[in-house]
Amino acid sequence: MKVAFFDAKPYDKPSFDKYGEENGIRFKYFETKLTEDTADLAHGFDAVCVFVNDTVNRAVIDKLNSFGIRLLALRCAGFNNVDMKYAHGRLHVFRVPAYSPYAVAEHTIALLLTSIRRIHKAYIRTRDFNFSLAGMTGFDLHGKTVGVVGTGRIGRAFIDICLGFGMKVLAYDKFPAADLEDGERVRYVTLDELFERSDIISLHCPLTEDTYHLINAETLEKCRRGVVILNTSRGALIDAEALLEGIKARVVGAACLDVYEEESEFFFEDFSGHILEDDVLARLISMPNVIVTSHQAFLTEEALRSIAETTVKNLLDFTQNGQCENELCYRGGSTEDCKSGKCF
Predict the structure, then answer these.
(1) Sheet-wide strand order for 26-29
(2) Which residues are catalytically annotated?
(3) Which of 26, 177, 184, 270 has its CA 20 to 30 A from that of 248?
């Protein structure tokens, strides 16, 4: 099997080469992202493999179909970059539902600790032999209340870490986990209560019509003054302009972002020698209480191996057995994992 691999980075290749060679799959790596303009590169391949910032819209799907391509392998859990309604009946779409929830959860807590204990500022100061502690006062996590939106694998891994710090957890999920709530340390609440009572809010939910701009001007008004906002999930969960205004108004005490709504134009690339044209992103980065990382929460050796192994397995399962447990299916206005194994 020949697979066109878009938005390829050096750290992708070792694991995909290993599992591909072991299973008779040859990956051709393209550094460019998949778009309508670059889809022609997939001509002559059996399948396409894409990541979070590749575009799989109607035009791209039609082009892939015209080349006889019916298999789309996402090497990520999210699929908001795919027009799933239009893909139904045209492409079999596979995803990696869980690679390393610990990688993302640990990165989230690393951002939080870096922010509230001023680690990033201390690093810069001591590099200049400045050992002053003025302006470096942080606060304890122990005893604080953290609101966790989304209690899937990553959200639960993050909750476990928070409990280890002695924090209280207010959780929200459209589909609550029956075994998570204990009434004392972890409790499910409404979104309004979560916003009103949390010292820290961490987002671990998918991007849907319901969660688009979940953090906005209206919801920020409900939050405690000085709230810390964490987002290692999807950029569009936060209205970036509203967040910026919340920071300027001192409503938001700090923000830690591994994702950004318009990140596809910038993240994973080197713009150090250029003027950043996104004014909102530039202003956020300039804020002393904002930390931005470029969608790197997933980037651990364990996660990269898991992503490659699952992606290869998805392709093999479908080509050999005609079905794959990680196939996505569009039904009745929503997208879900395929239960029948026969999406079309």
Answers:
(1) 26-29, 2-5, 47-50, 71-74, 92-94, 327-331, 334-337
(2) 234, 263, 295
(3) 270
